[in-house]
Amino acid sequence: MEPENKGIKGSQLKNMIIKRLYFNKAMSCAGLSDLFDKSIPSIAKAVNELMHEGFVVEHGYAPSSGGRRPLMYSVKANAMYILAVALDQLTARIQLFDLQNSPVADMLTFELKLLNNANALTILTNQINSYIKDSGIAKGKIAGIGIGMPGFINVTEGINYTYLDANGSLTAYLTEHTGITTYIDNDSSLIALAEQKFGIAKAQTEVMVINLGWGIGLGMIVNGKLFRGHTGFAGELSHIPLSEDGSLCECGKRGCLEAEASMLVVAQKAIEGIKQGRITSLKHNTNDHSKLMGDALLDAANNGDQFAIELLSDAGYKIGKALAILIHIMNPATIVLSGRGAKVAKILMAPIQQALHKYCIPRLSKGTELLVSELGFDAELIGAAVLVMENFDKSVKAKVSKATKTIA
Amino acid sequence: MEPENKGIKGSQLKNMIIKRLYFNKAMSCAGLSDLFDKSIPSIAKAVNELMHEGFVVEHGYAPSSGGRRPLMYSVKANAMYILAVALDQLTARIQLFDLQNSPVADMLTFELKLLNNANALTILTNQINSYIKDSGIAKGKIAGIGIGMPGFINVTEGINYTYLDANGSLTAYLTEHTGITTYIDNDSSLIALAEQKFGIAKAQTEVMVINLGWGIGLGMIVNGKLFRGHTGFAGELSHIPLSEDGSLCECGKRGCLEAEASMLVVAQKAIEGIKQGRITSLKHNTNDHSKLMGDALLDAANNGDQFAIELLSDAGYKIGKALAILIHIMNPATIVLSGRGAKVAKILMAPIQQALHKYCIPRLSKGTELLVSELGFDAELIGAAVLVMENFDKSVKAKVSKATKTIA
DNA sequence: AATACTTTATTTATATTTTTATAAACTTTA
DNA sequence: TAAAGTTTATAAAAATATAAATAAAGTATT
């Protein structure tokens, strides 16, 4: 075997330490020893090597807990970088982060229609490559590319069955055409990941994150890890049968949550209401599409427009009924309202709670805390970065970097 | 430190091997090496020690897969025993198994009313102790006691908040008063465990098991492990809001699945039907309680009684609607119909499938297989035994046994 | 039938990891 | 304020696990 391969097993622990320090800010050798169930000398050796290799720096002494103060270590922010990409049906965002999740280049936003757009993948690839070039960061310094996007995604194969057809594995295509290991996942899943690692649900192990967008998504954290189900379609909250009647959904059924309470549907109801002469501060030009109205509606509600609030309350109550079902089945510690609609979460809160009181056994609703995202619109980008680091201990990145380091 | 403690870490691997061989029948050193990510010499050493200690025996050669045939090892059936206990509200079952899940003593069944019965715990403890004594098996040879029971259970503390108040930890009480480490869990959870380890859902990682009994329970296997939720109440399928109206449930709400489709409710509907003169082979004496009627109804349905089948079909459709919701959220590989009602599962199957077609997105229902338990009424007892062995690698049992062995 | 290739098992030498002992730095108790 | 107890860190010795080499027992190929 080549000498390069000899170190894989040994560098495994080092990758695990880097990953942990990315998530945990700072830790002591003793803490890492407990966490990984390895002896302190083993940890100390790995940490010292990582310091010489430039991945880890000392981070001062933590307060004593009754004995000698532990020397803390943290990851060196500029040792590596992470490229995060967030896509929705119309828009793409690209942002480069360092290992402390600080942006190291301006965010790039551009229009990218995913549906029926054969050029979308080429455009995205070019934009990523030129963004990296403009940033001045060497590709070898980028730990990976994480991409969040709508659609039905096979994470292990790296395929999105709905958008961005790469004639096989999308991640393989992007890895090849950028030279950087790429990971993809569902947008709602990444938002959940962000909330659990760096957001309002930090360190919780049972978290349900509602992605209130044009649709209604659900990201599930079970046992501290993203849960995707057997074929990757878990969390289809938006199409459970909520009521027998109700308007017809895109999926062909009646009574779906998405057909009753998504921001898009609420916007359409607003347009109808205006046509029927409802008193509201909202205006509607016939050539506006629903998404523009949606954004306007959220702002109007926050500014106290009664009609907008009424529409949102109605949606909130239905969302609450769905959450009651979710609580009964999953018994989560936390439900987080996140995504685009998070900015009207305070208005939604009251009707949601009302529905929970009506439809939940108290013993169950008592065990779940309902929270509003603080990451807001950044959640998906941060989740995309987290996705890269979640896979870091399985990749051989650190080994490669180390190899170049030791030669240099 | 005492010399006894020195071996704990080393015997960890041996306990893991015993546990694996309990679940897997027979494995080779190479297979165990792959599984535990340990070198073959390490595994071989541990296996040889376990053979000398009497826990493991050779199990012949497996067919070649293109090279030297592997020598298989299996656990020695009579090296240890497991005591399984299954309780419902009225009846207790006790059964002693060997390490191949074969009964080594006759099953003991006795009446044990759990509700408002201050003596229940004492009676159970005495029955367990005398059962073991009668079996002639030394207590030191029993790896543990596993108990499945209804109620709201804190597994880690070993407390059942509903029944068998032990003024603290029920498992601690029983461990002390029997001298054998005791574990408890919810009946539906144990049925799920049994189905996943030794039943129709063997080796599946995403399994939902419906416990069709007097109530409707749900045992969830997520990521290959029992899922209990944040406060242990996950899987409350029976009280999700299914319909706006519907009969009033014990829980105080309307439209609960349990109030519409549990075997107890179906039996009550049968009694009402008979009173109203419905044509049926079923008879009803006014002093019969619903549970007797329930058993009779299941048999009548299996014998072709139209009225019984009609009632069950009605229940099946409602169960199907609930399963549709479950599939949307969990996207399981398998749903198993188990418990007392499993014997009419074939009758339930058609209306359940019908409801799934109506309420499920095809993409989701396609990914889930609906199966009927083959373990039937034995599932809970086997699950109780599995519970003991699931905890085996965390216990120090094997070390103790080994110690006594090496002295002898 | 002979050769090449696989997979499994065993032995030995090497590498790694953990224990143990010692020291350092700090808190708590007497 | 001194003594005792904690927690963390480091350096040596001891234990342990692994990799490499070799052997054994089979299948597949020519």
UniProtKB/TrEMBL annotation, chains A, B:
Pfam families: ROK
Superkingdom of the source species: Bacteria
Annotated protein name in UniProt: ROK family transcriptional regulator
Organism: Mucilaginibacter dorajii
Family per record: Belongs to the ROK (NagC/XylR) family.
